Amino acid sequence: MRQGSGGQAVIRFRAVGVSLLLVHLLLVGWLTLRPLDVPWMTAANLQPFAGIKADLTLGPAAAVRRIGGQLLLLAPLGVLLPMAGGRLFVSPWASLARTVAAGALISLGIELGQTGVPGQVVDVDSLILNTVGVALAHVLFVPACRARLRRRKQRRIRVLPSAAHEVPQGATPTISRVGIAP
User: Fold this and answer.
1) What is the sign, positive or negative, of the torsion defined by CA atoms of 87, 88, 90, 96?
2) DSSP-based three-state secondary structure for 123
3) Distance between CA atoms of 127 and 109, rounded to whole angstroms?
4) R_g over Cα of the chain
5) Distance CA 85, CA 10 (A)
6) 75, 83, 122, 146: which could form a disulfide with 133 (CB 3.0–4.6 Å)?
7) What does the pLDDT read at residue 56?
8) 95 with 138: CB under 8 angstroms?
9) How far apart are CA 69 and CA 131, in angstroms?
């Protein structure tokens, strides 16, 4: 259910979400799909968790930098996609599933786009880590933010006067059927 009663506030909230989402996607596209001038390239990694294992053998600092970078690359999508959707009253599980699926598809699109870019290599571990980053960001921030916004909205809703003072106006009028003229 979208917030129809919020009016301009909801429109501004969604517009900010869409704008930030587009800016983030442009930045991610520039970072991941620009050609690199490298003397040699590694082979594409199509075996899950092989690259993560290789990163862990480099030492703790390098592993945190490389794995953390992949987790953080698309993590803002975990917050920006629900923000752009503008839904306050939605099932947390449905929201998580929708956001993670969208994040996985965006990550897959980036990985497939890298096949035609010089110096960039497809890595299935990037797909996994990017998707986990989106899920973590969503779980950590979105439910708390939605709960806060719902509480704020409830405080603003004024209590309507009781229905005891209203006078019944009778049944709804109906129009009788009129035959077609001969």
Assistant:
1) positive
2) strand
3) 10
4) 25
5) 10
6) 75
7) 93
8) yes
9) 13
* Backbone torsions φ then ψ of 2, nearest 5 degrees: -85, 160
CA distance 62 to 109: 26
Please answer whether residues 29 and 110 qualify as being in contact, where contact means their C-beta atoms are separated by less than 8 angstroms. Answer: yes
Dig out the tokens for 161 from the structure. Answer: 């006067």
Query: Which residue type occupies 12?
Result: R
pLDDT tens digits in sequence order for the chain, 182 residues long: 444 455 677 788 889 999 999 999 999 999 999 988 888 778 888 999 999 999 999 999 999 999 999 999 999 999 999 999 888 888 999 999 999 999 999 999 999 999 888 888 899 999 999 999 999 999 999 999 988 888 887 777 655 555 555 666 777 777 777 777 66
Packing angle between helix 92-113 and helix 124-156, nearest 10 degrees? 140
